Amino acid sequence: MSFRKLNTLEAAGRRIFVRVDFNVPLAPDGTVADDTRIVASLPTLRYLLEKGAGLVVASHLGRPKGKRDPAQSLRPVREALEKYLRTPVGFAETIVGPAAESLAKGIRGEQVLLLENLRFEPGEEANDPGLSRALASLADAYVNDAFGSAHRAHASTAGITAFLSDTAAGFLMERELLALGRLLDSPERPNVAILGGAKISGKIDVLQNLLPRVDRLVIGGGMMFPFLRAKGLSIGRSLVEEDRVPIAKALLDDPVSAAKLLLPVDCRVADDIKGSDPGSVVPVTAIPESKMGVDIGPDSLAAIASALAEARTVFWNGPMGVFETPAFAVGTVGVAKEVARATKRGAFTVVGGGDSLAAVNQAGVENQISHCSTGGGASLEFLEGRVLPGVAALDPASSATR
User: Which among 68, 105, 354, 386 is annotated as catalytic?
Assistant: First the structure.
């Protein structure tokens, strides 16, 4: 993994194209509902402005699928960004073309222009060379600070560097790569990973890549049920990916893998996931046929706390239950607090994934985690051992060949 650091990039008097991740939720009134990702970009943007650069800032929002959709416009983001930067932020209604070029060329040092939603252009997700060239024409250098989109080979994350080779990673991108790289390359032991979420299918590759590298791998959430089914246990009406049960059984049959796996010993069961029934806690060996598992139980949380007691490295991705229902969020919030306690004991801790980060915030321990990753899908693909196109595009060696 090789990339140029931002503080080595000449910025004064130049226009710099900054790819950020402003894919934020919008409230019903059209305002930004959660500005976490905007705030995360500020160190990079402020640094470049202080160095005298003019900025052309670009992001996607939602999934407009190459069509203009006013409901997914970045206009509300412009207002929020202007508030945080305390400087006027221009807005380009179009992403490329004469109007966008004119606005971009008019940008001087310490000025900011925000482009409209990149995914309004069909060529963005197609990594179209024509769009890549047009985006590159708007600036003199390129900075990628959008780790959350680094696993996508899009025009603004990968293709643009074929035409704009003076590149660097933003501060957020750098922090993400160094923190996640530490999990893979030099984890201090004992090394514990916690994986949850509704499905095992989206995480089977990261699970298999992490198993040889960790001392314990904790399984929670809906991911537990293929393993319980593989052990021959009844799981009642719990949701399960039947085609993943053989994979779970293979891991359980492998003595080395099985010795590292920590599965729940109890869980909360209820009639449905809506929370109308608060349910009850039962051993995983006694899940009623009429009930479904919705959270881990207190004994399982105690076992996780024990696994983290001596941990020196911790990675957590995915909730332990149906976190969006308050009655079923106890296990997830409990894990957040245990990871924070591990940090206090000196462990290097990384939390990724929207629900896990929400739990960290809900538990009030967001400042007690070593690194909170802003890129759920990107962090998982990185930990699967994949090369992220947006990171590969920043490699100086590849730039030299363009």
Answer: 354
